[in-house]
Design brief:
The protein has about 110 residues and is mostly helical. About 70% of the residues lie in helices and about 0% in strands. It is built from 3 helices and no strands.
Length: about 110
């Protein structure tokens, strides 16, 4: 497929992102961890794993940015993909945190 005479999509590196579904795999893994045992410990472990994974994705993105800026690498697509992974993981973690806090507030406000 020729895009404006520039070349094939593969020359842009778009072939690298085909079938890219790290978010779905991560969510399925976390759901499996939480639903199998159902205890608070397993939930806490899954939450901490998500935070650790988010942190490592952010560090990877920062390292790739630094490598690109210093000229050690010329692969801009890898930098952009790593940044998007880190952004998506952070957004996911923030949303989960917000839902947990909301659930906690509802539990606290229950009348016994």
């Amino acid at each position: 497929m020729d895009i404006g005479g520039v070349g094939s999509m593969g020359s842009f590196g778009l072939d690298k992102i085909k079938n890219y579904s790290f978010v779905e795999e991560s969510i399925a893994k976390k759901e499996k961890n939480v639903s199998t045992v159902g205890s608070f410990d397993s939930f806490l472990t899954a939450a901490m794993d998500t935070i650790d994974e988010t942190s490592s994705l952010e560090q990877r993105a920062q390292q790739l940015q630094l490598d690109y800026i210093t000229g050690k690498s010329d692969d801009m697509l890898s930098v952009l993909l790593a940044e998007q992974k880190a952004y998506t993981a952070l957004n996911f973690s923030v949303q989960v945190t917000n839902k947990v806090i909301e659930a906690y507030k509802q539990i606290i406000s229950l009348q016994i």
